[in-house]
Amino acid sequence: MAKTPAWTRKEGKNPKGGLNAKGRASYKGGTLKPPVKSGDNPRRASFLARMGNMKGPEYDSKGNPTRLLLSLRQWGAKSKADARAKARAISKRNKAKKSKKKT
Question: In terms of C-beta distances under 8 Å and separation of at least 24 residues, what long-range contacts does 53-60 make, across chains too?
Fold first, then answer.
């Protein structure tokens, strides 16, 4: 019987949030890169905006952080609201840099 990919099992998940190297390697459909924890990387802005708008709680019924919140923390955000704010700020800075280069 074939095993499911590592990213769907505990062995492919980082206990601090997101996927570990084995989980990223097992993901079909593309090469996943590790989290960008700081800076104005457009990939970081996109992730924070997307995950900051995800449905679902940040904490479970026992008061433990969910995988969603753990992933956001790996990308440098403290909460979903913080993720949305950081995404807007990063995008704004990137647009300003881009328009400055054109002139």
Answer: 53/80, 53/84, 54/80
CA distance 16 to 95: 32
Segment-wise mean pLDDT, segments of 10 residues, the chain, 103 residues: 82 90 87 90 96 96 96 96 97 89 70
Alpha helical stretches, state H, the chain:
21-26, 42-52, 67-74, 80-102
| pLDDT at res. 47 | 95
Answer yes or no: are the C-beta atoms of 74 and 14 closer than 8 Å: yes
- Rounded CA-CA distance 73/85 in Å is 14
